[in-house]
Each structure stands twice: as C-alpha cells, then as structure tokens.
Amino acid sequence: MNQTVKVPSAKQLLKIVTFGKGKESYELNSLLSSGNMKLPSTTATFNMTPAKLCPSLALGLCKAYSPKGNHVCYAKKAETSRTAEVYPYRVRQMKYWETVTAEEFVGQFLSINALKEVPWTKLRFNEAGDFRSQECLNKAEKIATYLLRFGVRTYCYTHRSDLDYTKIKSLVVTGSNFKKEGIKSTFVMVEDVKKERPKGWSVCGGNCKVCEKCSINGNNIVIKRH
Q1: How far is CA 209 from CA 152, 212, 221, in A?
Q2: Does a structural domain hold residue 95?
Q3: Is residue 223 in a domain?
Q4: Top-confidence residue, 203 or 46
Q5: How does DSSP classify residue 86?
Q6: Higher pLDDT, 4 or 144
Q7: 172-176 β-sheet, strand order
C-alpha cells in the first residue's frame, strides 16, 4: 500500500525547528522595522549605523545636515528629540551588521519573512546612517542578490560618493546629490521645485505607500527642502 507523505509548509517547518518560538528565535527579528509614517508595512528597514555615527557625516559628504541647525538630518533628529530608545536600537543594528555574513543575514531574513502573516516585499537599508566601507556596500549587494531570487527588492540612499558602484547590479542605490558610474538614480533636495527641477525628473510626493520610484533603478527625483 502506497502511503502519501505530507510535506510541511515552510512556516510549519520553521516552527518545528525553532521549537515553537518562531520569529523570536532569530536575533535579526528584533532589529528589523516594518514601515513607518511614509513606508508601507511590507517594507523592512535596517540600519548599518546610527545617524550620530554616520560615515557620510564624518567624511563631510552629507548635504542634509548642518552644524548650525539648518536642514537637520531627519535620522539624527530622531536620535536626539524622540524616545531615548532610538539611538541604542540603531547601535544594536550596527553591532549585528558587523558580526554576521551576508548569508547569515539572508538566512534569518527569509526565515522571519516566511513566518510573517504579511511578508515583506522590500528591504530598505539605512533609513539612518550609511555604508561604512566598500566592504559594507559589497555585502549589501550580495544580500540584495540573494533576496531578489525570493521576490524581495533591496534599495537604499547614500551620500558615499567616494565608493565604487560599478559592480552593483541587484542593490538599487540612489545617490543623494551625486551621480557616478554604477549609480542609476539620483535624489536631490531643492528650494524651489518649479524652478530647479531638471527636465524629466520626478517630484517626490512624500508617500512611499503609493510610490515605488526610489526602489526601482533609473528614477531621478527632486524634493522640496523641508
């Protein structure tokens, strides 16, 4: 007599191998956020550094922050004017990033995503902070390549105009106020959108829940400084 073998779903299997703990078994679970006021809940966010330790700020490459207080970086403001937990949380993200390989990050991300009721379809790196080195950029590219195979698009903004982007294929990188070989999209803040918007550029509507332009290569966008 033939016996039919029932194969467990990914979610059932993960619950078994985590001894019923599910997502809580993975360190990365507490270090990923789902959406925010602008991003949809189907977008996960992860920061490589806090804003206070942002490499672009230290290198003088950031155009969003002024020590005089003009046009202050939103991420830096969140670490000083909001809950005291924001900065320590981002430090924990940074320490995790420093200790895992791209494969370990992907393994945990996909396991967590398989256990979610509403899976993530995108991963945004660096809502705060930036790439610390070329190695960080290459690691993010490797992660993006893996995740793309499972239908998750990975994207970010960066001020690191000093890095090499020529081998970046899967990670969607938008250059903040710069463009160079390998960077296919640019994001610029302007004082007057009508007067300063280059021909063919889009204007940011400020709501990523109804727009995907920043997560797709080839879109140049301006936003009114605010």
Answers
A1: 16, 8, 16
A2: yes
A3: no
A4: 46
A5: H
A6: 144
A7: 33-34, 43-46, 122-125, 153-158, 172-176, 185-190, 221-224, 202-203
Q: Alpha-carbon distance 157 to 224, whole Å?
A: 17
Residue 50's nearest CA partner among 26, 85, 16 is 85
Q: Are 44 and 120 in contact (CB under 8 A)?
A: yes
**pLDDT value of position 191:** 73
Residue 203 lies in a domain: no
* Number of domains comprising the chain: 1
Whether 10 maps to a domain, the answer reads no
Q: pLDDT tens, 111-152?
A: 999 999 999 999 999 999 999 999 999 999 999 999 999 999
For residue 35, what are the CA distances in angstroms to 91, 97, 110, 124, 136?
19, 20, 17, 10, 23
Answer whether 0.85 is exceeded by the pTM.
yes
The residue range of the domain holding 117 is 22-164+171-176
Nearest-angstrom CA–CA distance, 14 and 21: 9
pLDDT at 22: 80
- Mean per-residue pLDDT, 82-102: 91
- What is the tally of helices (H) and strands (E) in the chain? 7, 8
> Residue 88: in which H helix or E strand, if any?
helix 86-99
